[in-house]
Amino acid sequence: MFIRRPRQTGFTVLIFGLAAAGLTSLCLPAALGAQGSRERGVYVSVIDANGEPVTGLTPADFLVREDGVSREVLRVGSATEPMTIAVLVDDSQAATRAISDLRKGLQSFVTALVKGNEISIITFGERPTILVDYTATLDQLTAGINRLFARPGAGSYLLEAIVEASRGLVRRNPKRPVIVAITTEGQEFSNDYYQQVLDALHESRAAFHALILTSNATDETTDEARNRQVVLAQGPATTGGSRQFLLAETAITPQLDLLARQLKHQYRLVYSRPESLIPPTRLEVSVRRSGLTARATTLAGDR
């Protein structure tokens, strides 16, 4: 198997397991700390123990730290910028039993979010394929969803799909990029090394959300499977996204509905950073109220 060497980035290693304490921790590219601007912004999702979005919070409810140093929260309001959402859907042979539920869940998801936003649907069985290009038209998305079928004999190319979707978002330069991957644990065939995938994902500035249909028959001993495991763990944790394991196909629709509510009720938080020659490498956002979890994604303009 050919593995490309990861390129060097300005990202640092994160501490995981913080979400349970109501804290999200992000890697910041070095360019983010360029001098000349004292205000920085993030999109923040705040959820309760059931995953439901929490609204009505004020600047006093948030804590922001960069490299462990507290920053002043200046403003908090509803995130109103349009989202550009790439939905990656597994149509490999392993997804055969889930196709009906995938269609149902996708239809509910795009119906909830299409107004004012652009959504693309990309399948990754056999190879990444654009099923529906970015559009704000529900009829086009519905037509594409109705064309979703499992590919007999096809394996998963999830990692390639993440890279291609990330590069596509970089070219579009959207204000509020999001990538949602719905995948089985069937055999992975992508040759991409996990660091290459994470680099592309970080460059896109997209929040990465993964919904994973679990399977007891999964072979996780291959290099391809291990690379996928790392991406599905670190991708959501380092971008302000989320990862959910689904035990049954019937869980797809309610989980996509929950994710749609979370995306529709995000905050736009602005904080102050003193000018410095050395930019920060890690951002942490938390909430003061117990039982709540904050997930933050840096604004696309804050490069």
Residues in helix, %:
25-40%
> How many structural domains does the protein architecture include?
2
Shape label: globular
Main-sheet strand order equals: 8-7-6-9-10-11
SSE blueprint:
Layout lengths: L22 E5 L11 E9 L14 E5 L2 E3 L1 E6 L4 E7 L9 H15 L4 E6 L5 E7 L2 H9 L11 H15 L3 E9 L9 H11 L2 E7 L9 H17 L2 E5 L5 H13 L2 E6 L9 E6 L5 E6 L5
Parallel strand pairs: 6-7, 6-9, 9-10, 10-11
Antiparallel strand pairs: 1-13, 2-12, 2-14, 3-4, 3-13, 5-12, 7-8
Written account of the structure:
The protein is α/β, with parallel strands linked by helices and 303 residues long. It folds into two domains: 19-38 and 49-79 and 266-298, no CATH class; 83-263, 3-Layer(aba) Sandwich (Rossmann fold), CATH 3.40.50.410. It is built from six helices and 14 strands. The protein has helices spanning 99-113, 138-146, 158-172, 194-204, 223-239, 252-264, and strands spanning 23-27, 39-47, 62-66, 69-71, 73-78, 83-89, 118-123, 129-135, 176-184, 207-213, 242-246, 267-272, 282-287, 293-298. It has a six-stranded mixed sheet, sandwiched between helices. A four-stranded antiparallel sheet has the order 1-13-3-4. Strand 10, helix 5 (223-239) and strand 11 (242-246) form a beta-alpha-beta unit. Helix 1 (99-113) packs antiparallel against helix 2, helix 1 runs parallel beside helix 6 and helix 4 runs parallel beside helix 5 (223-239). Residues 1-22 and 29-36 have low confidence and may be disordered.
